[in-house]
Amino acid sequence: MILRRVKNVLARAKSELRRSFTEEHTPQETAGSFSLGVFVTMLPTLGTGLILFVVLAWAFDRINRVALFASVIVFNPVVKWGVYGASFAIGTTILGPVPGVTRSAVSLSAGPEVVTRLLVGNLLLAIIATAAAYVVAYRLVSTYEYTDIPVIDAVTDLVGDEESAASDDGVAADRDS
């Protein structure tokens, strides 16, 4: 029963990816959706970006929902701590150090200056990551669409072969006993 559910989920994911990449959206729309997702995910939205994703996906038919939500996988909460550290470093480089704050003596009175540096650096990083995400996603989707590389088929067939082999072993073991 569990294997049947897993196979159904994999089949739906496979068909959704194929439809998303080839039938429903152009490479520009897919790359734009992914890069929009990267921009929103990179910003310090404290989880409200997901609400924005739902609203955007509902409001616009040209947004590739799979690509939009895939950005959350790339910039997950673990990765975002590194993004915030890099954002603060970039903001400090651009705006200078926070007056009166050293690494050993940080006080709450410096909060607005620290947040300003974080936001400036984060916005700059988000713009750079958005441009890079568009280029990479566009190239990947274009390559998939025009060369018809069976990446999705290979991955799901590999997973399917392992599952069928495991289920075949279980059936053979049941027959033997």
How are the SSEs ordered, and which strands pair?
Elements: H1 2-23, H2 27-42, H3 48-59, H4 65-74, H5 77-95, H6 111-147, H7 151-176
Helix pairs in contact: 1-7, 2-4, 2-6, 5-6
Number of helices: 7
Average the pLDDT over all residues and give the rounded result.
Answer: 75
- Which oligomerization state do the chains in this entry correspond to? single chain
Helix content: over 70%
Structural class: mainly alpha
Query: Can you summarize the main beta sheet?
Result: none
Using the alpha-carbon principal axes, give the shape: elongated
| Secondary structure tally: strands | 0
Q: Using only CA atoms, what is the Rg?
A: 22 Å
Q: Please trace the helix and strand order, writing H or E for each element.
A: HHHHHHH
Would you identify the regions where 5 or more consecutive residues have pLDDT less than 50?
161-177
Strand content: under 5%
Number of domains: 1
Notes on the protein architecture:
With 177 residues, this protein is mainly α. It has one domain. It contains seven helices and no strands. It has helices at residues 2-23, 27-42, 48-59, 65-74, 77-95, 111-147, 151-176. The chain is elongated. The chain starts with a helix and ends with a helix. Mean pLDDT is 75; it is low at 161-177.
